[in-house]
Fold each of these.
Amino acid sequence: MSDLLGIGATGIRAYSRALSAVSDNIANSQTPGYARRSVRLEEAPGGGDVALYRNAILPGGVLVDGINRSVDQWLVDDARTAGSDAGQSDVRLGWLQATERAIDDGPSGVGQNVTKLFNNADQLASDPNNEALRSSFLQSVDDVASSFRRTASQLASVANGISADAVIKTEALNTSINALKRVNDGLQASRDGSTNQAGLLDERDQLLDRIAASIPVGVEYNAKGAATLQVDGPGSEILLSGNNVTSISSVVAGDGTISYQLSPGSAFAAPSGELAGLSQSASHVAAQRSELDSLANQFVADLNGAHQAGQDVGGNAGVALLVLPAGATSMVAIAIVPSGVAAADASSSNGNMLALSGLRGANGTEAGWANMVALQSQAVSSARAQDSAATSRQDGANAARDDVSGIDLDREAADLLRFQQAYQGAARVLQVARENMQTILNSL
């Protein structure tokens, strides 16, 4: 009867572990990064010949050989790659949309105010002695200067936001890499097939997903599951190997563009991921700020030149209307009295105002601004299409991974019922062994 006791006891222990694994699966069915677990069961070796059995039949019960995680490494790596691409497109789209909002093309934007200035000049040309129209023209000059300053300030704010986001994301990336090192240390000390090891492997994969969203990585695993990490791209710089951890920092240039460095100072380019999206966004904003400054310089030079070519009410040469000490953010209208507007030329009282319309051609500020707005709109549209494709790709990769690693509650319910019945059967074996032993003892 000791055989029955042993068989029943191993069954109780094994099926209790199996029920615990099913319970963990059900409890974590909505936990991100959790991989389904199952218990590996094997037949326990017999303890030796027993008088009641033939020598060829030596039942020994059931043992737990370890915990299995339901993962397909190829699908995990594919989802990680898709996460890098999605991280890059998502960050880029967000900052390009912020840039589009900064380039205000509404009633208070540069384009509308420049158009308003030329319209006011046309009205003044029709009645050059009207002081109210002269004041309106001067006000429109100030409005244009204000809109250039405001747009430049908003673009600078976007550039600063990108720089700050790069600092935050590189710090978060370094934190994740250091956390992965600690998980590696835990894996080295964990027992193979244990629940603790399975939990550490889940945490490792979540950290790797988080890291890959920032920068694409290549991963190698040792026999214990500890990860060696390197940048997946040109150079293949090592980020984590054993106790050696490499930190990443962002470097912001004077024009707002962003590059990255690995400690102790070697530069590298992020091939994809959020860091690449930030770098691309910073370069785009820097180009837009440069274009805005070029338009501001052109407008100031054109308007001042045209105004200085005319004559005011007193027959004096026109003066500069705008100053631009240092880019669009510094454009300021010079205060002059309405009579100082140089509406006349040498032949008529409105000739200079009529000549201003010559600044509205294909090479003028209006056309340049419209081109800048159109290119920005195209950039956002392209980024939105890329983000949609990358998100769909990521969703498909995650779905394929979750088909293997995810929790199917119907399946867990079936396993729960199966292992409950097995547990009850093992308990019944113990009960029978106990009753038989008690019967034998009572007969002595």
Note: The mean pLDDT is 90.
Amino acid sequence: MKKLSIFIALILTLIFLTGCWDYSEIEDIAIASGMTVDLDENGLYLVNVELVDINPSTSGVDLSPLIVEAEGNTIIEAIRNIISISMKRVRWSHGSYVIISQEAAKKGLIPLVDWIARHPEARLTIHILVSKENTAKEIMLEERPFAKIRALEFEKFVKSSHYLSKLPHVEVYRLINQISNKNLYSVLPTIELKDINNKGYSKMMGSAYFAHGKLEGFLDSMETMKYLFILDEIEGGLLIVPTGDNTDDKVSLDILKNKTHIDIDIEDDNITFIININTTVNIAEVDNGVNYSDIEGRSSLKKIAEEFLEDELESFIRYTQKDIGLDIFGFGNMIRKKNKHVWKAIEENWDSIFKEVNVVVNSNIKIRNSEHISKSIKADE
């Protein structure tokens, strides 16, 4: 009896271990690594999906890209129409990027974000980039100098972008929250092609800002860096500080770490945002031969760098208030969190109030030594 019980238990175990409810043959599926979204001349969505073609090779497995194009009245219809060409169901569990054209972005991000959020396989960490070229498709189709699969190339760009701090990172769940809140605005990374020796290379730098999910304009790489300073999203990069009237008099400071804290002072009808920035840097390059490594030189450079950063950020905020006119920093949301009573009184007029609020930037820069030398290199005249 005991032997029979063991035998029955083994048989039942084998039954439950022999399959998977969601099992698919590898020949029946196509693995998507990313896609582009454009609009055709009729206003239909035109998607190009990068599929990963897996082939056996002498070294093991060879991965190569296969680009498939389809169109539809909606994004999901265009993606579903890929099946009629690839003859396979597209799996999105490894999809890591979407490039959207300016025209499609002006129409709105909601269809794209809604599809990502609803799809059971699509990852909420997928990178959404805005093309600065005429289309998004041409970026995907350009030659891949660093990796066969465009997604692998983009992953390298994103991982190394913290050395520049000129590219925002926005998770899809944050994007959904921003689009859903009428007082929040989205800022997404941009991508374009740069011609080098008659070859097009992808350049990920700068950003695009959105109002209510629709593209409004662009920030260049330096404006994006200032935006990241204010949002406390600086991870590295260089702070290039002019130190004299001569354009060649510059010091490059390598940002090691940064912390930005924003206080709000509300008195009667006056609202002031006090932005306190603490930055630790190394001296990475000195162009004019001045010695900034001794106590006097470092004190002088500290003052120059702090005043420079304060002026740059305050000027950028004024430009945002007057020319862009959108609270891309989320200042209003900070008031809502700190003082709901005040926010309730000003919420409906915040867009106009934002243009007039006072902003003060205080910078504290700690300068460490250079890596190998203690004095600047100076030519002997």
Note: The chain has a mean pLDDT of 85.
Amino acid sequence: MTRNILLLLSLTLTFLSASGQDNETYLKANAIRFDNPEKLSDNVYTLLSPFQIVMVGEMHGTNESAPLVSGFDKSFHHQRR
């Protein structure tokens, strides 16, 4: 019984200290719009090259994600030469 209470208290304290964010506000402030996902500007490379991982997502389907990843690949290979 005491063990269960301690576990519950620990979990409660963990979740109380976690802070969330408003997804819509965060996305509006940090999202990057690409006009042509298959041909990215050098600014995209400059912006993203410091990161080891870049997450790519799609809100309404999968039509744009694949060309965008292809554009990233072309941009990063072109810049490394």
Note: The radius of gyration is 20 Å.
Amino acid sequence: MDAPTTNRYRGDFVAWVGGCGFIGEGRGAPISPHSHYAIQLVIGAPTGLRVQFGRRAQWQSCPAALVPSRATHSIDVNDCEWSAVLFIEPETPEGKALSSRLQGGLEVLDADLVAASAKRLDRAWRIEKSYDAVKAVCLQLVQDISQTTLREPSDPRVLAAVEYIRQRVDQTVLLSEVAEAANLSPGRFRHLFVEETGMPLRTYLLWRRLLHVWTLLMQGETLSTAAHAAGFADSAHLSRTARSMFGLAPSALQMNGPLSARSRMPQHHLG
């Protein structure tokens, strides 16, 4: 298990099909150079963001940046009032569009491109304190930047499979089992699932487990409890997996922002 740090990122987590994001504030040293599977969109508000592409490159000050999948990079949000870090699964339509555009390189985004979204995100997070509102702004921002249109799964067979997976997030789920729940052959189901969700089943299963962890942490569960509830052997296994997908371990963040506070209130349910 990762040792806790003195100055950790404090904030909240939101998720959608094929992506997720952290929004919060924190002080401390820049994140060490790392790489991960997800494409990353980072915004520093209102100013103060710095990014480094590669291990020894010059730091660049910018309002926002896109980092391609598997690229070594570092970010510094120490001088930001708050920041948002969004992760986009590369196999989704949004991820494919961004990967094609980035071609493995960092893209610094213009202030005009993200200023309005940053203001809406700030309001949704700090004033409205609404999970659904924050999620909606993040989704719209990803669509705008990737120039794609959101397409949620609609085929009832895939929706039945998604529900089957949701109820077994702490278990090992086989392709044959999910295909049977959808009343399809494994081969036909595999093709349909990718067509509807933009992700292979194996990747989707891992995303669901990791998203379940962050949701439980927002609700006040311990790291160990969340790891076991999502089917990880222990918190160390969870940390290794989270690092490969997001570049950081769950222990590096404190889920105590306004959305987390609301999620811990009696009778409150996340959207």
Note: The CA atoms of residues 89 and 203 lie 9 Å apart.
